[in-house]
Amino acid sequence: MKVDRSPIQVMAEEKKAVKNIPPKGDDLSEWYTQVCLKAQLVDYAPVRGCIVLRPYGFAIWDRIREEFDKRFKATGHSNAYFPLFIPESLLAREADHVEGFAPEVAWVTEGGGEKLTERLAIRPTSEVVIGMMYAKWIQSHRDLPVLINQWANVVRWEKATRPFLRTLEFLWQEGHTAHASQAEAAEEVQRMLEVYREVAEDELGLPVIKGRKSANERFAGALSTFAIEAMMPDGKALQAGTSHELGQNFAKAYDISFTDVDEQRKHVWTTSWGVSWRILGGLIMTHGDDRGLVLPPQIAPTQVVVVPIIRKGDESVPPAARACYDALRGEFRAHLDDRIEQTAPWKFNEWEMRGVPVRVEIGPRDVADGKVTIARRDTLEKSSVPASEAAAHIGRILAEIQRELRARALAERERRTTTATTREQFVEALKRQAGFVLAPWCDRTECELQIKAETSAVSRVIVADAAPGETCAYDGSPAKVKAYFARSY
Question: For the whole model, what pTM was predicted?
Answer without folding.
Answer: 0.93
